[in-house]
Amino acid sequence: MLLEVQDLHVFYGKIEAIKGISFNVNEGEIVSLIGANGAGKTTTMRTISGVRPVAQGRILFEGQDITNMAPHDRVKLGICQAPEGRGIFPGMTVRENLDMGTYIRGYKSATKAADMEHVISLFPRLGERISQMGGTLSGGEQQMLAIGRALMSRPRLMLLDEPSMGLAPMLIAQIFSIVKQINSEGISVLMVEQNATQALKTAHRGYVLETGYVMKTGTGADLLVDPAVRAAYLGG
Amino acid sequence: MRDWLIYRTFWDLTVSGVALGLIYALVALGYTMVYGVLRLINFAHSEIFMVGTFGVLISLTQVFGINLFEDGEYPYRSGIVLVLILLGSTVAAMVVSGAGAVVLERTAYRPLRGAGDTFGAVVLAFLTGLIASFLFTDSMMTNLMIAAVITGPLAVVYVRIFRKGRQAPRLAFLISAIGASMAMAEAVATWGPDERVVYKTPRVLEKKVLFNFFGADVRIDYVIVAFGAILMMTALLLFVNRTRLGRGIRAVAQDAETARILGVNVNSVILVTFLLGGAMAGGAAMMFTLVYDQTRFNIGFLLGVKSFTAAVLGGIGNIKGALLGGIVLGLAENYGSSIFGGQWKDVIAFIVLLVVLMFRPTGILGESLGKARV
Question: What mean pLDDT comes out for the span B115-140?
Fold first, then answer.
């Protein structure tokens, strides 16, 4: 098992945002967490990256306990995230943003040029915009940049927080097909989505979160046809 | 009559105003960079500058063994000896200020961020013990021993108070800054045989007039200030834009949480920021003593306030803004004091700030450490 989350509790101030959830991601899988606003999806992702402290429970990566590990050490292990809202550095160029993905491997990493070529082959638009400031990109381009930047760190597990948020339908389809392609290259993906239909179609397995709990779990295909899930998240 | 006076001294005022402004600018960099990464006004930065001037004083008198006067004359040096002395005292000031800034961050700020750091707790415990022991006896040796004994148990208490994940409220950082500032100034004030005295620094550089600029005398110390300041700022900009840690600084300034997610160790970035800001203040301290030949325990206060003003004037968080703000402030002070009289000097500095902020609330160049580019 690549990632295992056991009975995770996370607080935001005095409010318990995550009330004991457990889930896992196997090597080579795409797993989707779906749920409405306030279900605790983004908090879960930030906790896995290590920027939210865990109140109770454990997070294991390849069997190693990383519950209290510093965020930068988790990136070294191979966990990288394209965060909610994309987190593009507005005052850096596209190239500098991509460079930030290689931060843990050192500024003059030998494989950087090859990695950057690979990312640009996935997202040719980023190649065209390489010297432009991150803040001047469109929403879709920023999302590509966020995913590309996470790829630059050569992750084992890629965390994607709402990759389709605010994008036009055509771009959404493109982003999800890229996710599949990244996965076919051997990178496991944990994805959080409000666009449940697309997320479940893309994923091998899914978990339905509701206000801090795991309500349901199953394969992507099973959840897509589940009546309760359909009623709540897929518009009937 | 007055108009004639202004005309005649205009270029003189410009030359000395730019030199003063560059010193403000170097100190302003420390305020601006720390604000950029922490969104914190480091009010103790003025004392980081102040300890730098004492670094110069000690290196000149103790390391190089230069007296204030030699046979009733200034101890002028020349040639390679002079260059070595100037470089040596610059390095001393930068090391003292840089180390001061690093210790300041680890004792006064990092414990409050909930980083779960034992170093800060131990140093704080030792300092608490040292200060408390002075209430009972004045013997330094006895006090050090008392402090050493107290450190252990007190450090345990501090480690519990500053435990991991316990973030202090914003106001606590400000109070900690003011406390650290007072502690540093008072520690220097009570240091040495004469309390609260003005220390003269040996004048090793003969302040010859190098050339004329529209009738204004340009002295060699002004030229050194200008070259030194520009050299240091260029080096800083290159570091911020061209190195990995520099890019880490920009990333934390633009979006600290995303920077962490991508593997930036925020605590080490903050430490480097304090170190760089401290080194710049150290350089400024060297230039200050070069021009004014003196220092005092409270020398940082007004200069610190002015440099902070320069940082806000140019746009806080903006490296080039610090340069621009410093020069504007230095010139405004000089012109203003010539027109209205020297007693108005400080008033004019703050009026300029008020007027600029009325029309451009984010400063002349706007806020943005992240956007700093060569």
Answer: 82
Task: Judge whether A78 is closer than 8 Å to chain B, CB to CB.
Answer: no
* Radius of gyration of chain B, Cα coordinates, nearest whole angstrom: 22
For the stretch A50-79, pLDDT in tens is 999 899 999 999 999 999 999 999 999 999
ipTM over 0.90: yes
Residues of chain B with C-beta less than 8 angstroms from the C-beta of A93: none
Confidence at B356, pLDDT banded by 50, 70, 90: confident
Q: Do the bridges between strand A30-34 and strand A205-210 make them parallel or antiparallel, or are there none, so unpaired?
A: parallel
Sequence-ordered list of residues with C-beta below 8 angstroms from that of A64, at least 6 positions apart, any chain: A77
Q: Which residues in chain A land under pLDDT 70?
A: 107-109, 235-236
pTM of the entire structure? 0.91
Measured between beta carbons, the chain A residues lying within 8 angstroms of B259 are 100
∠ CA A147-A150-A153, nearest 5°, is 150
State both tokens at A230. Answer: 């359909």
On whether residue B156 sits in a domain, the answer given is no
Are the C-beta atoms of B239 and B33 separated by less than 8 Å?
A: no
Alpha carbon distance B29, A69 (integer Å) = 33
For chain B, how many structural domains are there in total? 1
Work out the angle at residue A123's Cα, subtended by the Cα atoms of residues A119 and A125, and round it to the nearest 5 degrees.
125
Residues of chain A in contact with residue B320, where contact means CB-CB under 8 angstroms, are none
∠ CA(A206), CA(A207), CA(A212), 5° rounding? 160
Q: Which helix (H) or strand (E) holds A179?
A: helix A169-184
Residue A213, classed as helix, strand or coil, is: strand
Give the CATH fold of the A1-78+157-163+190-236 domain: Rossmann fold (3.40.50)
Spatial neighbors of A23 by CB under 8 A, at least 6 apart, are A5, A31, A33, A207, A214, A217
Are the Cβ atoms of A92 and B251 closer than 8 angstroms?
yes
Q: Is A4 on the interface with B (CB under 8 A)?
A: no
Task: Give residue B331's domain range.
Answer: 2-117+162-359
- What residues of chain A lie within 8 A of the CB of B247, using their CB? 92, 96, 99-100, 103, 107
| CB-based contact, A90 to chain B, within 8 Å | yes
Question: In the prediction, which pLDDT does B3 show?
Answer: 53
Chain B residue numbers with beta carbons less than 8 Å from the beta carbon of A91 are 250, 254, 368, 370-372
Alpha-carbon distances, residue A108 vs A26, A100, B87, B265 (angstroms): 32, 12, 32, 18
Closest residue in A to B255 (Cα) is A89
Closest to A164 (Cα-Cα) out of A202, A218, A208, A135: A202
Q: What is the pLDDT of residue A211?
A: 83
Confirm whether B346 is domain-assigned: yes
- Give the CATH number for residue B207: 1.10.3470
Task: Give the pair of three-digit tokens for residue A215.
Answer: 């309500």
Q: For testing the chain B interface, which of A100, A157, A159 should be mutated: the one with the most B CBs within 10 Å?
A: A100
Q: Determine contact, residues A161/A146, Cβ cutoff 8 Å.
A: no
Domains of chain A, by residue range, sit at: 1-78+157-163+190-236
